[in-house]
Amino acid sequence: METVLRANEANRRWGRGKVRHLIDTGHWQRPWPRVVVTHNGPLSRLETIAVAWLAAPPGSVVSGLTALELDGLTGFDDTRIFLTLPQGRRPTALPPTELHWSTCLEPGVDVHLVREPRRTTFARSLVDAASWSTHQRRVRVLVIAAFQQGLVNADAVTEALARRGTCRHRALIIESVLDALGGIQSLPERDFTWIWRVLGLPRPARQQRVKGADGRYYLDVYWRELDLAVEIHGAPHRAVERWDADVVRGNEVAITGSRVLVFTSFAIRHDRAVVADQLLRMARHCGWTGRAPTRDEFLTLDALERHSAAWLEEVHEGCDSVVAITTAESHPPSRRRRRM
Question: What pTM value is reported for the model?
Answer without folding.
Answer: 0.64
